[in-house]
């Protein structure tokens, strides 16, 4: 049904769009009879059966936490207008409990009417001022035991044994229904509720996966995840029982589940203790004194041993102050960061002291802090130092400073230069007096692994990035015991470490292999590989002789500092701030993944006036508007890396892709219901309907990185930027005809071409090229042949056509900063095959652009631009390090070895 503001549906006047999806559209409307505002849900004809089923289900329910239905038309529903946002986590435990109780209350009401929802998920739970509202009963199921006196339930809502719902929130019996005929009942909703509860508390899905098959395998086979670290044990037990694979092992009713949650949320039980007698008081005093003495003795022993495994009482934890150093700090050469982005701390070989890179009175240098001392000692001669490392015998301390790799005697003395080098992120001192380190191999930041004799000399390349296989850089080297194998991190992009992989290089044969996903791996005796994944420490059983995992990786510690995004285009990032001593102690910096350049999305008018868009700050890139202008697709990097969709009418922002930061450069399809994006390593083309529960479809496969740029108006062609690491970036076109697709080059020259955009009539492509020696904007006829015409004349990139085809906007970077520039608009005309452009300045400002996709978009009327604005948030310098004594005991308990 095609509607517009002002349209009348019987007594209902359409006011504004609220959203759209697979079943139709939702509109804000006014009931002219009762003068109240309502929501009208329209449907396409082929979905009318499901639409009628939803109406019957909702009409049977009258509950404060279930959306109410007011009226039904031939192809529309009139419903309660709800002012709310989709449920999202992570939430405080008390808030999550409140919402969980309300959800269970709504489910109980539905279940008692014989209705199983079957699509319980955060998107169908709105948070309002009065609490939760449960929506969308379009795939609900009626139990055969439904009360016959309910006329509204006289029709079976869906057939038996159908696979319906949203994959991430399905129960095992939903997934098996079609195969084995298993009956689905209300206990299926309880499993889905457990998944929602986990997401409320953690902000993550309980069963993630890179494909539908892996998600299904997780739901069917993986044990329920634990929330013991963030919630009371009783709530962890509730969650595990909700997520039991067999319905018989779950809570058997939503009412019982609600009662249990209410008990957990209630006030603690008051316990009355009988006053102690004088004799018992003396006994308690002696017992307390003994406990204090044992604690002091344990602390003294821990400090003497550096946290050795012989420390009594098992695992111990202490906070170590940095004084007289004021903070850990990144290198002064990189914008005076407040937090370290390179390796900042390392244990000495005997496990008795930490060496760290800190700052005091504005001067950065290395410090040594012994465990049995209260203060650190500055190491003379290490001014400007980063990335400390130590010789195996402990006699030398290595570091990088002022363009050189250096070492200084641990016992004191002047520093000694080892070799010249670009700035490094980490180094490791192997057997045979050989040092391995990473450094940039070119000005673009790509890095490889090098080696040099500890006594000095010329550095020799050991391994360079295999760009043919999508590698960008090799970083963070670590030598395995025996000195025959080198571990390092392979990065797949210049600015993001979340998609890194850990590789092993045989120093005898030169052969390499990928071990697992992650970054900054370290070997820990007696047989573990410990490494970083997005601000969490992971570990897996590991055979150092074969350089291979012998078991599954397990997350063992959240909130370990790891940089995921530099302050500008800094590519030397990703180091995990932790170190494990030979005596089994762990030292780490708390903080998790951090980003120093959170950004906001804003509207900017043609005069430069900025209006914020109500979205939380993230590391946003490349916003794109739907063709109807109602929604915005954008992607983010870092801890919340994914593609997002923002609805301007409702104000809701929902994720379209899974977290992890490997989906980027979203572009709306011509139908406004599909979003195209790049994903995987190397990045290839995919698309998905505008619903995170829909399947992801691959559009193209290539060993080169691909980024979608623009669809042709008829939806038959997709212009992309494809990057060959050896040949550079060029424009290709993916064409669709009769159910088949072909990928062909459109413009491949000795120069670099990116950021293509189709004209509204599909006859021209605007793009960026550096053929003149700097980036400029050009247009050329599509599909060609024909001459290309310049649009910009003093620099330009990221062109965008206006909807009427009479103007091309583009950005001119100032050159002094990646965020400073000027928005230009060129009036264009093309008659008889001739093209002309007249550029003029619109506004200047600080905004983030990105390549090879466009970093902004233009509204349909051409009056506003949606752009990414830097948003520097206050950060706090790191002033403490956590020391965990006898940590390998905990590691052994958490990660079992075969």
CATH names the topology of the largest domain as: Neuraminidase
Structural class: mainly beta
Q: Helix tally? A: 9
The largest sheet, given as strand count, sense and whether it forms a barrel, is:
6 strands, antiparallel
Percent helix, as a range, is 10-25%
The strand order across the widest sheet is 1-2-3-4-6-5
Uncertain runs with pLDDT below 50, 5 residues or more?
A: 144-163, 269-312, 330-339, 494-498, 565-573
Total domain count:
3
Average pLDDT confidence is 81
Task: Please give the number of β-strands.
Answer: 63
Instruction: Give the overall silhouette.
Output: globular
Estimate what percentage of residues fall within beta strands. 35-45%
Rg for CA atoms: 31 Å
Briefly characterize the structure.
The chain is mainly beta and 898 residues long.
Task: Please explain how this structure is put together.
It contains nine helices and 63 strands. The protein is mainly β. The protein folds into three domains: 94-265, Transferase(Phosphotransferase) domain 1 (Transferase(Phosphotransferase), domain 1), CATH 1.10.510.10; 328-596 and 876-894, TolB, C-terminal domain (Neuraminidase), CATH 2.120.10; 599-870, 6 Propeller (Neuraminidase). The strands form 16 sheets. A six-stranded antiparallel β-sheet has the order 1-2-3-4-6-5, with helices on one face. Strands 13, 14, 15, 16 and 17 form a five-stranded antiparallel β-sheet that branches. The two termini are 61 Å apart. Mean pLDDT is 81; it is low at 144-163, 269-312, 330-339, 494-498 and 565-573.
């Amino acid at each position: 049904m095609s509607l517009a503001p002002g349209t009348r549906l019987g007594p209902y006047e359409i006011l504004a769009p609220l959203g759209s999806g697979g079943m139709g559209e939702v509109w804000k409307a006014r009931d002219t009879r009762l003068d109240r505002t309502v929501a009208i849900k329209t449907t396409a004809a082929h979905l009318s059966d499901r639409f009628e089923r939803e109406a019957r289900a909702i009409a049977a329910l009258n509950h404060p936490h279930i959306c109410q239905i007011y009226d039904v038309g031939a192809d529309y529903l009139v419903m309660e207008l709800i002012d709310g946002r989709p449920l999202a986590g992570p939430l405080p435990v008390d808030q999550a409990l409140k919402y969980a109780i309300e959800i269970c209350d709504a489910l109980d009401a539905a279940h008692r009417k014989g209705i199983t929802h079957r699509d319980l998920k955060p998107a169908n739970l709105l948070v309002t001022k009065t609490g939760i509202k449960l929506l969308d009963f379009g795939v609900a199921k009626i139990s055969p035991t439904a009360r016959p006196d309910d006329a509204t339930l006289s029709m079976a809502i869906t057939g038996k044994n159908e696979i319906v719902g949203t994959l991430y929130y399905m129960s095992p019996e939903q997934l098996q229904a079609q195969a084995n005929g298993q009956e689905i009942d209300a206990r299926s909703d309880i499993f889905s509720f457990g998944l929602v509860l986990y997401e409320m508390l953690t902000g993550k899905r309980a069963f993630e996966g890179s494909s539908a098959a892996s998600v299904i395998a997780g739901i069917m086979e993986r044990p329920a995840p634990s929330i013991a670290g963030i919630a009371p044990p009783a709530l962890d037990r509730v969650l595990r029982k909700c997520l039991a694979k067999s319905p018989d092992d779950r809570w058997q009713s939503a009412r019982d589940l609600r009662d249990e949650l209410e008990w957990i949320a209630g006030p603690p039980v008051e316990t009355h203790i009988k006053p102690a007698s004088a004799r018992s008081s003396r006994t308690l005093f002696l017992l307390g004194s003994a406990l204090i003495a044992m604690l002091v003795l344990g602390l003294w022993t821990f400090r003497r041993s550096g946290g050795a495994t012989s420390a009594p009482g098992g695992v111990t934890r202490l906070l170590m102050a940095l004084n007289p150093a004021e903070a850990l700090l990144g290198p002064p050469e990189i914008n005076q960061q407040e937090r370290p982005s390179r390796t900042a701390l390392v244990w000495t070989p005997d496990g008795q002291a930490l060496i760290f890179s800190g700052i005091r009175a504005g001067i950065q240098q290395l410090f040594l802090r012994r465990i049995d001392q209260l203060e650190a000692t500055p190491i003379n001669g290490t001014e400007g130092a980063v990335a400390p490392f130590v010789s195996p015998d402990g006699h030398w301390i290595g570091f990088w400073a002022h363009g050189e790799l250096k070492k200084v005697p641990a016992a004191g003395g002047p520093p000694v230069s080892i070799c010249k080098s670009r700035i490094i992120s980490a180094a490791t001192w192997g057997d045979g007096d050989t040092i391995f380190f990473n450094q940039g191999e070119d000005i673009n930041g790509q890095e490889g692994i090098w080696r040099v004799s500890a006594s000095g000399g010329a550095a020799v390349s050991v391994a360079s990035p295999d760009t043919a296989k999508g590698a960008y850089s090799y970083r963070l080297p670590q030598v395995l015991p025996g000195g025959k194998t080198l571990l390092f991190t392979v990065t797949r992009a210049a600015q993001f470490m979340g998609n890194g992989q850990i590789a092993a290089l045989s120093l005898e044969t030169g052969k390499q292999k990928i071990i697992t996903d992650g970054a900054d791996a370290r070997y820990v005796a007696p047989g573990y590989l410990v490494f970083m994944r997005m601000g969490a420490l992971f570990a897996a059983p590991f055979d150092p002789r074969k350089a291979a995992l012998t078991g599954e990786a397990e997350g063992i510690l959240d909130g370990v500092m790891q940089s995921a995004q530099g302050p500008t285009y800094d590519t030397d990032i990703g180091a995990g701030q932790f170190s494990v001593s030979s005596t089994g102690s762990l030292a780490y910096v708390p903080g998790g993944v951090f980003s120093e350049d959170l950004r906001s999305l804003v509207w900017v008018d043609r005069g430069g006036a900025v209006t914020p868009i109500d979205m939380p700050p993230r590391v946003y890139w490349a916003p794109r508007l739907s063709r109807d202008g109602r929604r915005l697709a954008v992607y983010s990097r870092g801890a919340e890396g994914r593609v997002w969709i923002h609805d301007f009418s409702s104000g809701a922002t929902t994720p379209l892709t899974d977290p992890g930061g490997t989906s980027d450069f979203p572009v709306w399809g011509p139908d406004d219901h599909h979003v195209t994006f790049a994903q995987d390593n190397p990045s290839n083309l995919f698309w998905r309907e505008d619903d995170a529960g829909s399947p992801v479809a691959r559009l193209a496969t290539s060993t080169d990185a691909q980024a979608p740029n623009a669809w042709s108006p008829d939806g038959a062609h997709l212009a992309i930027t494809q990057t060959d690491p050896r040949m550079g970036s060029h424009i290709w076109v993916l064409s669709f005809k009769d159910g088949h697709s072909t990928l062909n080059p459109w413009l491949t020259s000795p120069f670099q071409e990116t950021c293509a955009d189709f004209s509204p009539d599909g006859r021209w492509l605007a793009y960026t090229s550096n053929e003149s020696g700097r980036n400029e904007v050009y247009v050329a006829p599509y599909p060609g042949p024909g001459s290309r015409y310049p649009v910009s004349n003093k620099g330009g990139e990221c062109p965008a056509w206006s909807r009427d085809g009479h103007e091309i906007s583009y950005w001119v970077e100032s050159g002094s900063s990646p965020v400073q520039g000027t928005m230009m608009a060129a009036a264009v005309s093309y008659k008889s095959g001739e093209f002309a452009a007249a550029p003029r300045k619109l506004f200047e400002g600080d905004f983030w652009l990105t390549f090879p996709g466009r970093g902004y978009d233009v509204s349909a009327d051409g009056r506003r631009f949606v752009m990414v604005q830097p948003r520097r948030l206050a950060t706090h310098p790191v002033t403490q390090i956590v020391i965990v004594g006898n940590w390998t005991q905990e590691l052994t308990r958490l990660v079992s070895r075969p």
